């Protein structure tokens, strides 16, 4: 019996989770500081603080992405996940 290729589902779930985390981080940032949703109304310091926090979140998700790609490459050799 051939293992079902659910790599597309795993990638889709990853993308949804990453998008949700990013959106949640943005919403938590502006709500916790009682800021406008529009960054144009933030101070330079507020934008810099958000950029720092967003950069940390991006770095965390980059690690998770590399872990997922390694898993997909191991489980589905020869698939599209083997391309860099």
Annotation keywords:
single chain; 84 residues; mainly alpha; 2 helices
Assembly of the depicted chains: single chain
Per DSSP, what share of the residues sits in E-state strands of 2 or more residues? Answer: under 5%
Class from helix and strand fractions: mainly alpha
What distance lies between the first and last C-alpha atoms, to the nearest angstrom?
29 Å
Total of domains: 1
Low-confidence stretches: none
Helix count, DSSP H or I runs of 4 or more residues: 2
Choose one word for the global shape. Answer: elongated
How many strand segments? Answer: 0
Percent helix = 55-70%
Could you explain how this protein is built, in words?
69% of the residues lie in helices and 0% in strands. With 84 residues, it is an all-alpha fold. The chain has one domain (14-76). It is elongated. 2% of the residues are buried.
């Amino acid at each position: 019996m051939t293992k079902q290729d659910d790599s597309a589902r795993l990638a889709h779930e990853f993308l949804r989770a990453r998008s949700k985390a990013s959106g949640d981080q943005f919403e938590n940032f502006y709500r916790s500081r009682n800021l406008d949703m529009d960054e144009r109304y933030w101070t330079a310091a507020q934008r810099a603080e958000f950029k720092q926090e967003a950069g940390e979140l991006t770095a965390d998700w980059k690690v998770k992405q590399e872990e997922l790609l390694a898993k997909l490459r191991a489980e589905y050799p020869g698939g599209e996940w083997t391309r860099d």
